[in-house]
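Milestone M4 deliverable, item 7.
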Amino acid sequence: MNASALSSFTSGGYGSLQKYLTTRHADALVLTFAEIEDLLGFPLPDAAWVEPGWWAPPPTGAVPSTQSQSWTLAKRNATPNLRAETVLFERM
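Output delivered:
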């Protein structure tokens, strides 16, 4: 499935992040929160800045959050560094 088809699965405006992550060839990418907001076209919610759980995958069997779908469908894990205001997206 190509990147544009994948982005249609993500709702809530996180499709642009998914598309970006899907089209990058590097196994690991570090993006600042500001870069993520630029990709999205809107500010990250307050929880993204202070709660590591906002970036966590859903528990087994739970419905994934809209934001986690964006990197999961791009076959990435997200590891935030809240102090540095960055996220490491690593290929699964």
